[in-house]
């Protein structure tokens, strides 16, 4: 998720737009899940987790660099570029924005606003169904081989325990739902964009599902599903997701950035790093389980979800 930081301004707490984005994403996720429907070894001294048959518990997984190597939006952008959704001059601009973020490591509001507006203009006027079909193709082309086996095992442990598992990402909700479906997960919370009569208007509902908006989406979904957040788990690589991780009783730092690693140590959160193959650092309770090309920058802020008036 660190690569997505330039999408939205940094905020210390949820705003009205964050709440709107979160609630819209939760609504889309529940609708999608209703349409569809090597377990990690636990340390011997730890109680069983996840708890078998606990229907008040669920798991929430960030996507980029947590479940999948790299950013889903950038891989999606590669597919859009291949399908001539935009021109070479757009590619250069998006590539610069992504390179700037990776070098600077901070969120710049002007860069984020420009990226979001540019990407939304690319999909404006396209049909929702068209982008859904393309998302299926792009998953096979660029994403299927990038799933972290360790994180996938963590998700499977929750499924095997009879719990629902949701992706929570700033990526377009249609793309997130494709990935969730392919992995056999319950569904996905993603950024919601407005559509009228099945056609994208080029506007977001609220804001990208990022930072505080993610926490609001999880909170809204938990309320709708009758979940007890103190019994739920959340997984992320990014300090931007501390609001979401702080909501649940079982937060995990997966492949954490430096800020999240420090925070996890301070809070005794569980930690696991799959990037180097080294053993998980023991932070509180041990963890339960043992870029894309520059063209991808074109989709960095596309928010593709049904929002019918």
Average pLDDT confidence is 76
Q: What is the share of helical residues?
A: 40-55%
Order of helices and strands: HEHHHHHEHEEEHEHEHE
Percentage beta strand: 5-15%
SSE-based structural type: alpha/beta
What does this structure look like?
The chain is α/β, with parallel strands linked by helices and 309 residues long. It is built from ten helices and eight strands. The strands form two sheets. A six-stranded parallel β-sheet has the order 3-2-1-6-7-8, sandwiched between helices. Strands 4-5 form a two-stranded antiparallel sheet. Strand 2, helix 7 and strand 3 (187-191) form a beta-alpha-beta unit. Helix 1 (16-35) packs across helix 8 and helix 2 (72-82) packs across helix 5 (128-143). The radius of gyration is 18 Å and the shape is globular. Residues 1-12, 36-45 and 278-309 have low confidence and may be disordered.
């Amino acid at each position: 998720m660190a690569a997505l930081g330039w999408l939205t301004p940094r905020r210390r707490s949820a705003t009205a737009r964050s709440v709107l984005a979160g609630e819209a994403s939760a609504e889309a996720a529940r609708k999608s899940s209703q349409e569809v429907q090597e377990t990690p070894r636990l340390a011997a001294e730890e109680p069983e987790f996840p708890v078998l048959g606990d229907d008040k518990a669920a798991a929430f997984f960030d996507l980029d660099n947590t479940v999948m190597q790299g950013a889903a939006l950038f891989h999606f952008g590669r597919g859009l570029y291949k399908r001539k959704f935009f021109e070479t001059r757009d590619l250069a601009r998006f590539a610069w924005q992504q390179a700037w973020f990776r070098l600077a490591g901070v969120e710049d509001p002007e860069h984020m606003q420009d990226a979001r507006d540019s990407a939304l203009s690319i999909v404006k006027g396209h049909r929702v169904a068209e982008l859904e079909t393309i998302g299926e193709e792009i998953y096979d082309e660029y994403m299927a081989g990038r799933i972290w086996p360790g994180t996938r095992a963590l998700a499977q442990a929750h499924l095997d325990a009879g719990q629902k598992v949701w992706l929570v990402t700033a990526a377009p909700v249609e793309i997130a739902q494709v990935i969730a479906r392919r992995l056999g997960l319950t569904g996905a919370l993603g950024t919601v964009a407005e559509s009228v009569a099945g056609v994208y208007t080029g506007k977001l509902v609220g804001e990208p599902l990022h930072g505080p908006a993610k926490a609001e989406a999880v909170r809204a979904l938990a309320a709708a599903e009758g979940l007890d957040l103190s019994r739920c788990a959340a997984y992320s690589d990014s300090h931007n997701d501390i609001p979401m991780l702080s909501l649940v009783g079982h937060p995990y730092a997966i492949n954490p950035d430096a800020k999240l690693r420090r925070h996890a140590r301070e809070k005794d959160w569980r930690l696991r790093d799959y990037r180097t193959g080294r053993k998980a650092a023991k932070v509180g309770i041990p963890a339960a389980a043992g870029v894309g090309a520059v063209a991808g920058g074109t989709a960095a802020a596309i928010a593709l979800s049904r929002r019918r008036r």
